[in-house]
Amino acid sequence: MSLSATTAPPSPAAPPPSRDVSSRRRRGRLLNRLDVKYSPYLYIAPFFLIFGTFGLYPMVRTAWMSLHDWDMIGDHSFIGFDNYTRLMSDEYFWNALVNTFGIFALSTIPQLLLALFLANLLNRTLLRAKTFFRMAIFMPNVVSVAAVAIVFGMLFQREFGLFNWLLSFVGVDPVDWDGQRWSSWFAISSMVNWRWTGYNTLILLAGMQAIPKDLYEAAAIDGASPWRQFWQITLPMLKPTFIFVVILSTIGGMQLFTEPLLFGNGNIIGGNQREFQTLAMYMYEMGIVNLNTAGYGAAVAWAIFMIIVVVSLFNFLLVRRSAK
Amino acid sequence: MRLTTRRTRLAVAALAAITAVSGLTACGKDDDKPAAGEKPAKLVVDTFGEMGYDELVKQYEKDTGIKVELRKTAQLGDYRPKLVRYLATGKGAADVTALEEGILNEFKPNARNWEDLAPLVADHSKEYLPWKWELGKAPDGRLIGLPTDVGSLAVCYRKDLFEAAGLPTERDQVSALWQDWKGFHDAGLKYKQGSGGKAFIDSITAVSNGVLFQGNGDLFYDKEDNIIADTSPAVKNAWDTATSMVDISAKASTWSPEWSGGFKQGTFAATFCPSWMLGIVSDNSGPANKGKWDVASVPGGGGNWGGSWLAVPAQSKYPKEAAKLAEYLTNAKSQVEAFKAKGPLPTNLEALKDPAFLGYTNEYFSNAPTGKIFGESVAKIQPIHLGPKHQAVKENALEPALRAFENGQADKAKAWEQFTKDAKTQGAF
């Protein structure tokens, strides 16, 4: 755009305008118009091309695979929507769905509430060493997820785990953390909460900082308490940021994989009776671990995609309505 | 006129953008196949667990001037998905790839992914345990793998804990304690009593492995590869023996943190040791427990848990040299060296007779004559037909069900039901 200003054709001066010059000028104008109209597309093209290669193509390919009986290292044959019909009556798929939602609820709800609380604290003008606290709260997110899972796996061990040791002081019998649904869900969501609370806090904090200060000043003059300011100003103004955070958490929660996998010592079925096998793990089991059911795994992948879309939409509507 | 220029320019711009991006993706193309006869600068070897190749590979580099990169993966569970990815995408596989028995069976139906080694190496068919050599062949006749080791079974036990519980500690006396599995259970109960209620073995899945691989008939598949997991007497026998031992088990499933920590802490006093397990036991127990472990024979005669082959993926750029390297790593001398380094038991008949092997004593395990102990049990191994998805049925159907029973999540009947149901889905192929 600025290009057009600097490379504008020189004003025709001394030589009388010949046909050649006028055609050149016309071409210049044309270039100009093309530049203004189309170069923005060129500038954003790399993203779309890369997205097409690494995002869209795999999705289309997965959809194509899901219509086949596909052996990972062998043959495949077209079977239409058989994989999807099979999915509907697959007990383990529904089991994984329940687990995923269970862990998702246990991790997302407390996590967002805590993040909101922490962000509000960090937003106080009176707080000293603000930058330190803001950085510190983000630290867990920098730690690799595998390390987190391994450390938490140790903490939740039956024999030598820290939590069972602590429980023994209050007279509680050691808990077999990976033996029941509730305890394994609790252990896994504690990892997720530990890792992502700070991350969400920072995003919410950024949203809070964008709220004009004079609103609070005016409210304070009118005699509104901090609590009331939080409900009447912060929350409503934070709505777009909150929606964003909710959607992000939804996507992350539905794709939960590493934490439950490492919690179960790397066993893909997630517990002796699949107590904590998530959808992503089930997809991996069917698509990668079992060589000959890769097509079915692809169908699971698409099912997860559709579920994320539906849940995100649902959450979006829920948050938009409740925080109006 | 104007319209055409606009279109051409747009097309040119678009084309430029596309070439720019395709330039990014084109670098993975496979157009750098070496000329025939060219010596490779580097060969890659993929192994899992501990195969004892470090020194051998160094020697090979010295002898041939070909650099060898040894990529080790600790657990088979991490190793397999990587390998599957290499095969599915046609890229990334090592030139020489170690295949464990279960994996090998899984790959046999699609044998085209592997080089036929028969034309690439000399004829060694008479030099190895015959059944082991035969198992390296695919149904279409191609020789996929050269035999590396067998998982001949023994029992590793803690002398100091045995002594404290009032059990004999000398290895022949210990072996005499358990002529059969009943005797093993009794010894366990005695240990439990003498030690104040401590667990005897690591887990009942370890027991089931021990019984399964003694090979009394077909396991999950019959000879025609039909799944028979729910009716197979051999599986039922392993199930019943394993579940009967729940009262002497530490409930520490193999490879879990409870399990690897348990070696140091002494939460169990005995575990089943295929010879490749010796290195893992000593690594987990640490130098502090050196000399406290010993090796006795397994109840009910020999057995074969695991064991591997070396194969060359069809995608290797240097199949010939890779086959030569595999040949070198599996020859009699190398197998003895690997055994001394990390414990994988030779499959080469000459290596099995080698005095250096037979006379070898393992310092960590109280100088147990492991060469003699394992060498003798090799002769007792019965070849077992495992079938294509043996590993999946064992790991994702049988063992979870056993653990569910062991941890009290399901009673015996419920757990068996869980197993037979899962065996059908896991075993389908």
UniProtKB/TrEMBL annotation, chain A:
Domain ABC transmembrane type-1 residue range list: 97-317
InterPro entries registered for this protein in UniProt: ABC_transporter_permease, MetI-like, MetI-like_sf
Keywords of the record: Cell membrane, Membrane, Transmembrane, Transmembrane helix, Transport
Region span, Disordered: 1-24
TM spans (from-to): 41-60, 92-119, 131-156, 196-216, 237-257, 296-319
Keyword Transmembrane helix: yes
Chain coiled-coil ranges: none
Family (UniProt): Belongs to the binding-protein-dependent transport system permease family.
Protein name according to UniProt: Sugar ABC transporter permease
Automatic annotation (TrEMBL), chain B:
Keywords on record: Signal
Keyword Signal attributed: yes
Keyword Signal: yes
Annotated InterPro entries: Bact_solute-bd_prot1 (IPR050490), SBP (IPR006059)
Signal peptide coordinates: 1-26
Pfam families per record: SBP_bac_8
Protein name stated in the entry: ABC transporter substrate-binding protein
Organism: Micromonospora profundi
